[in-house]
């Protein structure tokens, strides 16, 4: 009886062994596939060769794909002559002003983007808002006027540098692109503190030993990298990349000459009221109850502060010489800045950078204009 059933039993045992082998092989392939997918996921999110979520805005802001020809990623945007464009230069309080404009959004948002209570003449006058994603549009715009947010160059540059510092960004939970997350720590390893950055400055020349494309971040030479970052040669540092020189000399259309109004962060609401009055507003200009910048992080204790030595401040101020020159030109062009208001900004610049002799600088600028 047992002999008659032995082949059947052997066949069943063999079948069970085959099933276990197939199950083991299947599990092995599952593990291999999971490992491959995991590696692919890691590479995509950590290696900078892949385009990140900021690539669209970056290409649009540059107006170029890096090969020398324009390739905007957003459709053309028409502008009208009898209108103004609001130019939001980074770290100048422009985010606060944008909330008071019916068209205070980038071109990613079509049409009026806000319903404004107590709407001002400026809000009705501003047709388009220009910040990092839209700066590339400025040279071809037809606006008869530009309203520009500005701030003392020393304060703006320091704020810009510290804003994206990885340690600070982590504290106030700044949303960053994959490129910022990857390259930020590499760059800031060269200048972990403001004092470190300032000590890397080498005079007032904007020529830096940084023979790389603006999209690259190379930290082999910290002195060259710091120079390039401050003078707008490294695209990752967008607020420093779009500095006063960049906006004034390469972005704002000057022919025919346009009307210029400025909103200084230090005197934001005084300037806001004054510009509205100059443009014809007769009723009261209502300003927000909270006079602070909506994105102000001054109430947060940040690990990397503005602490800087006298020597470091002097070196940084000298390096900012050309930025101060462009800043003062904007103030001179501005219709809403009279001699009294100009003196206020000049006094602040003198306090921030007493070694620059900004008054002599302004005299020289006026002679050359």
From TrEMBL:
SUPFAM superfamilies: P-loop containing nucleoside triphosphate hydrolases
Protein name, UniProt field: Sulfotransferase domain-containing protein
Organism: Cylindrotheca closterium
Source taxonomy: Eukaryota, Sar, Stramenopiles, Ochrophyta, Bacillariophyta
């Amino acid at each position: 009886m047992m002999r008659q059933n032995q082949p059947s039993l052997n066949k069943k045992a063999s079948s069970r062994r085959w099933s276990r082998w197939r199950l083991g092989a299947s599990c092995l392939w599952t593990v291999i596939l999971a490992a491959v997918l995991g590696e692919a996921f890691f590479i995509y999110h950590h290696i900078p060769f892949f385009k990140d979520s900021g690539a669209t805005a970056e290409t649009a802001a540059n107006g170029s794909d890096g090969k020398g020809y324009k390739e905007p990623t957003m459709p053309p945007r028409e502008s009208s002559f009898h209108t103004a464009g609001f130019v939001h230069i980074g770290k100048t309080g422009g985010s606060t002003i944008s909330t008071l404009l019916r068209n205070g959004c980038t071109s990613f948002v079509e049409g009026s983007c806000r319903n404004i209570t107590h709407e001002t003449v400026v809000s009705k006058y501003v047709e388009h808002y220009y910040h990092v994603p839209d700066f590339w549009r400025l040279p071809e715009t037809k606006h008869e006027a530009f309203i520009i947010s500005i701030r003392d160059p020393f304060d703006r540059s320091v704020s810009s540098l510290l804003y994206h510092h990885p340690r600070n960004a982590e504290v106030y939970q700044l949303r960053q692109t994959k490129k910022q997350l990857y390259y930020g720590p590499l760059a800031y390893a060269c200048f972990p503190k403001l004092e470190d950055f300032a000590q890397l400055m080498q005079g007032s020349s904007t020529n830096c030993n940084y023979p790389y494309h603006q999209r690259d971040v190379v930290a082999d030479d910290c002195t060259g990298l710091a120079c390039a970052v401050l003078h707008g040669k490294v695209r990752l540092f967008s607020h420093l990349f779009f500095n006063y020189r960049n906006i004034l000399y390469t972005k704002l259309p000057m022919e025919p000459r346009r009307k210029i109004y400025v909103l200084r962060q230090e005197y934001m609401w005084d300037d806001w009221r004054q510009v509205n009055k100059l443009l014809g507003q007769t009723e009261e200009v209502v300003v927000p109850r909270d006079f602070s910048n909506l994105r102000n992080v001054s109430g947060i204790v940040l690990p990397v502060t503005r602490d800087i030595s006298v020597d470091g401040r002097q070196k940084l101020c000298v390096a900012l010489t050309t930025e101060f020159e462009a800043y003062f030109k904007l103030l001179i062009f501005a219709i809403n800045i009279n001699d009294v208001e100009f003196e206020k900004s000049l006094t602040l610049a003198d306090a921030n950078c007493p070694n620059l002799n900004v008054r002599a600088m302004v005299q020289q600028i006026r002679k050359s204009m």
